Amino acid sequence: IPSPRPTMLTNALFAFIGSINENSGQSRAEVFVADFILTHLVGKDINEIWQVKNPMGLLTKVLEENGRQAPESRLIWATGVSSVLSTYVVGVYSNKEFLGKSAGATVSIAEEMAARDALRHLFETDEKRAQIPFDNLYKKGLLIHK
């Protein structure tokens, strides 16, 4: 028996959550998502789970959807350019606003990593971000209607 495609599983999950929302209300759908989906993310870094194939393309799309200018990459500094241990640091900007930066062995690698850094900042999933406070969710609002 062939296993279902990921898109089929995704659509089935969305349909299930939608049916809960339709029949029992949004608060019940939120409880389901919190109980059966978000709890699996406890202690995990969302950036390790979320595999972005084209970070600069996604960053461009997100900025455009928010009415902002397309991202612009700039070489901040480089060292050891003519050696085996070359390092480049690239920054990503939108309308002169700093979005993120990263280092890499080549300019293209540094640019890709800088786009990932910018996405982490935009979606507030960077390392400095606190974990989801599930105990507070149950006490103060989201899951109080259980």
UniProtKB/TrEMBL annotation:
Kindly give the SUPFAM superfamilies that the UniProt entry links to this protein: dsRNA-binding domain-like
What CDD domains does UniProt report for this protein, alphabetically? DSRM_MRPL44
* Entry annotated with the keyword RNA-binding: yes
InterPro entries named among the record's database cross-references: dsRBD_dom, Ribosomal_mL44_DSRM_metazoa
Care to name a GO molecular-function term for this sequence? double-stranded RNA binding
Q: DRBM domain spans which residues?
A: 54-124
Under the heading Pfam families, the entry gives: DSRM_MRPL44 (PF22892)
Q: Which UniProt keywords apply?
A: Mitochondrion, Ribonucleoprotein, Ribosomal protein, RNA-binding, Transit peptide
Similarity comment text for this entry: Belongs to the ribonuclease III family. Mitochondrion-specific ribosomal protein mL44 subfamily.
Name by which UniProt lists this protein:
Large ribosomal subunit protein mL44
